[in-house]
Design brief:
Elements: H1 2-15, H2 17-34, H3 37-57, H4 68-97, H5 100-105, H6 113-139, H7 148-175, H8 179-183, H9 186-191, H10 207-214, H11 217-230, H12 237-263
Helix pairs in contact: 2-6, 3-4, 3-6, 4-6, 4-7, 4-11, 6-7, 7-11, 7-12, 11-12
Main location: membrane
Protein name: Transport permease protein
Family: Belongs to the ABC-2 integral membrane protein family.
């Protein structure tokens, strides 16, 4: 009898996975709408950085392009996303400290839907931040000759990058001992674009720095997005960028689910 009840409960959970995930997404989104300032906080620093580099340093940086803001935008978008995911770790850490995870685990819902609620909320909030930054970039003179397929490819890369980093954020959100510990992981991610081709071409860097810059994920992702937005051929760089994103996503998801099961 207990086995039958257990199987019935499992079937119910599987059948209601997406509806449960929708409820969790709605819960997390309400937190976002109650503190919209978090979205503006995430966008202010990248926008200020974009203004600084375009109007102060732009004239001294040789990139081989006529419009430096076009060169700069992909890296700024990645910095905004890396900054935004820290709020996912913060919100998840808060749920852990308040015992929300244990409370949801005691209910007949799919166990992973709580995590997916936070992850999808990160996708939405970071998407809004990207839109705001793109609007500001257009006011600063950003122009693109990309077609609809290229724009869809850019959206896909940014979404995959956000998804991968969000699952990275889930790990400290579940395992950190303090709020500072939960959010500190994002600092190296924010700094990583500075040692890439996001701001200057890698050929201007010292040899050791150039080797690192040319073989880290941000450079491949930035150059893929830059090529797509400018209507240039992407070649193998796109596949390298996708491989980095998928690899990070798979590894982060495995460790995040392991941390979740251990915490629950």
């Amino acid at each position: 009898m207990e086995a039958i009840q257990s199987n019935t409960s499992d079937v119910r959970i599987q059948n209601h996975f997406f509806s449960d995930m929708g409820v969790m997404l709605g819960r997390s989104m309400r937190h976002i709408f109650r503190s919209v300032d978090t979205i503006f906080t995430v966008t202010i620093t990248p926008i200020a950085m974009m203004l600084l580099f375009v109007y102060v340093f732009g004239g001294a940086i040789q990139t081989g392009t006529a419009n430096y803001v076009n060169y700069l935008v992909p890296g700024i978008l990645l910095i905004a996303i890396a900054s935004g995911i820290s709020y996912t770790a913060y919100r998840l850490f808060t749920d852990v400290q308040k015992g929300i995870i244990e409370r949801f685990r005691s209910m007949p819902i799919a166990p992973s839907t709580m995590l997916w609620g936070h992850v999808l909320t990160s996708m939405v909030s970071n998407g809004l931040s990207v839109v705001v930054i793109m609007l500001v970039a257009m006011l600063m003179g950003f122009r693109s000759s990309a077609g609809i397929l290229s724009w869809l490819a850019v959206i896909g890369i940014l979404s995959l990058f956000t998804l991968a980093l969000t699952w990275v954020a889930v790990i400290p959100g579940l395992t950190a001992k303090s709020i500072d510990g939960a959010t500190a992981f994002s600092y190296p991610l924010i700094f990583l674009p500075f040692i890439s081709s996001a701001f200057v071409p890698t050929k201007s860097m010292p040899f050791v720095v150039r080797v690192f810059a040319e073989n880290q994920p941000v450079t491949a992702i930035v150059e893929s997005i830059r090529a797509l937005l400018s209507g240039q051929p992407v070649s193998n760089t796109l596949w390298v960028a996708l491989a980095w994103c998928v690899g990070i996503l798979v590894v982060a998801y495995i460790f995040a689910m392991r941390a979740y099961r251990k915490r629950a």
